[in-house]
Amino acid sequence: MSTKREEARRDLTVNRKAFHDYSIEETLEAGLVLVGSEIKSLREGKANLREAYVRVENYEAWLINAHIGLYAQGGTHFNHEPLRKRKLLLHSNQIMYLRAQVAQKGLTLVPIRIYLARGKAKLEVAVARGKKLYDKREALAERDAQRDIDRAVRGKL
Question: How many domains does the chain fold into?
Answer without folding.
Answer: 1
